[in-house]
Amino acid sequence: MSQSSSPRKKTGRRPGGADTRREVLEAARGEFAARGYQKASMRAIARAAGVDPALLHHYFGSKDRLFLAALEFPVDPRVMVEQVLAGDREGMGERLAAFVLRLWEEPAVRERLLALLRTAATTEEVAALMRGFMVTELVGRVAAGLDVERPELRVELVMSQIVGLAMARYVIGVEPLASTPAEELVPLLGRTVQLYLTAP
Amino acid sequence: MSQSSSPRKKTGRRPGGADTRREVLEAARGEFAARGYQKASMRAIARAAGVDPALLHHYFGSKDRLFLAALEFPVDPRVMVEQVLAGDREGMGERLAAFVLRLWEEPAVRERLLALLRTAATTEEVAALMRGFMVTELVGRVAAGLDVERPELRVELVMSQIVGLAMARYVIGVEPLASTPAEELVPLLGRTVQLYLTAP
Fold first, then answer.
1. Contact between residue A31 and residue A53 where contact means Cβ atoms under 8 Å apart
2. What structural domains and CATH numbers belong to chain B?
3. If you count DSSP H runs as helices and E runs as strands, how many of each does chain B have, helices first?
4. Are A165 and B162 inside 8 Å of each other by CB?
5. I want to staple B120 with a disulfide (CB 3.0 to 4.6 A). Which of A1, A96, A199, B127 is the partner?
6. pLDDT value, residue A192
C-alpha cells in the first residue's frame, strides 16, 4: 500500500535493502515520537538508523515523505491538495469531496486510515504527531490558496468534517449514512467544503 | 453529572438505594451490550437486576433514559433536540451550534463525551450501541421536523460534523481550531448545520 515508494526494488545493495528500510522507519517513528513532527530531524533519524543522511534523502526525499512512510499513510495528502487547488474555485468543494470519498471507499486505504484515526483518538503522542504534520504540511498549503479571512481555521473545519464523516459512516456506521452510495454524498459534502473554503 | 435523575435522594428504601441503582445500571449495560439498544428490554433488565419492572420505570422512566444513565451520558440529547427544533427555522443551525459548543466547552461534559467517543472508535459493541440509540431516539426525531429530502441523512451529516469538530478541536487539537474561542466557531458551524438541515 504505502510500499509504492519502497526502495526495495530499486537496488540490491545492502544499504537500500528491506532491513535497512525497516530500521530507518523504526528510527523515524522513534524520533518523531520523541521530538514531534516539527522538531524531528532527518539527520537524527539517519544517525539512529546508522545510515548516511544522504541515503535517507535519496530514498525518502523529504521529512514529510518519511513521516508518511513511517506511519504507513496509505495516501500522500499533498497529492490531494494539488488536485483540489488546481482548477476552478467554484468546483473546489466538490473536487475535494469526490477525492476524499473515493479514497475512503477503497477497503485497504480505509482500513489503514481508520487505524490511524483510532490510534490518534486514544494515544496523545500519535495525536500530537498528526497535529504537527497536518499543520505544517497540509493546512498551510491549502490556506495559502484561499481568499478568505482566517484561512487556516477554514481548512481545519473542512478536515474536521472529513474526519467526522469517516467516524459516522465507517466507525459508528449510523444508517442511512453508512449505506448511502458515495456518489450521493459527494454533492452534500462538497457544498459544505465549498462553504468553508470560499464563503466570506 | 448524570446524577440529576438519580433516585438516591428520592427515597430511603432499600430498593431505591445506591446499591440498587448500581445493580440496575450494571444489568442495563449487560443487556444493552448483549442485545443492542433496540432489542434490549426494560423487563429483562429488571429481571437481571432482581427488581420489579415497575420500579425501573418509576426511577428511569423509559429505556432511553436508562441507556443514558448506564452509559453515563453527561447530557440528555433530547433536550438539545427540543431546543433546536423549537424556534424559527432560519436560526436552527446557529442554535444547534451554540448549544453543542457550549456543552463541549464544559470540561466535565467534554471529558465524558470524549471517553464515549474513544470507546466507540475502538470497541464495535459500543459503536453498535451508540448507533442504535442515535438512530432510534435522535435521528428520527429531528428528521421529522425537517422539510428536505432524505432528512435522516441530513441529520446524520450534522452529527458527523459535530463529532469531527470534537475530534479535531479536542482530541487531535489542531491549531488554530483548538484555541479559537467557541463564540467565533458558532457562526461557522451554524452555517454548515443550517445548510445540511434546510438547503434543498
1. no
2. 20-70 (1.10.10.60), 77-198 (1.10.357.10)
3. 11, 0
4. no
5. B127
6. 98
Residue A5 has pLDDT above 80, yes or no: no
* Cα distances (Å, whole numbers) of residue B175 to A2, B76, B93, B98, B115: 27, 30, 24, 21, 22
Mutation to test the A interface, candidates B161, B169, B196, most A Cβ within 10 Å: B161
Residue B73 has which C-alpha cell? Answer: 451520558
Which residues in chain B belong to E strands, given as ranges? none
Closest residue by Cα to residue A117 from A172, A197, A69, A193: A172
Nearest to A116 by CA among A128, A130, A102, A103: A130
Average pLDDT, chain B: 87
The model's pLDDT over A172-186, given as tens digits with 9 standing for 90+, comes to: 889 999 999 999 999
- Asked if B141 contacts B81 with a C-beta cutoff of 8 angstroms, the reply is yes
At B150, list the grid cell.
432524505
Judging contacts by C-beta atoms under 8 Å, the chain A residues touching residue B153 are 176-177, 180, 188
Whether the pTM exceeds 0.90: the reply is no
| pLDDT > 70? residue B9 | no
Contact A190, A93 (CB under 8 A): yes
From the list B152, B160, B157, B163, the residue with the least C-alpha distance to B195 is: B157
Q: How far are the Cα atoms of A44, A156, B98, B184 from residue B178, in angstroms, in the given order?
A: 30, 10, 16, 12
CB B198 within 8 A of CB B88: no
Cβ burial, residue B24 (10 Å; 0-12/13-18/19+)? buried
> Of B58, B184, B68, B57, which is closest to residue B136 (Cα–Cα)?
B68
Question: What pLDDT was estimated at residue B113?
Answer: 87
Helix axes A18-39, A63-70, angle to 10 degrees: 110
Please state, in angstroms and rounded to a whole number, the distance separating the CA atoms of residues A5 and A135.
23
pLDDT of residue A121: 80
Chain A residues with beta carbon closer than 8 angstroms to that of B128: 173
Distance of residue B127 Cα from the nearest chain A Cα, in angstroms: 5
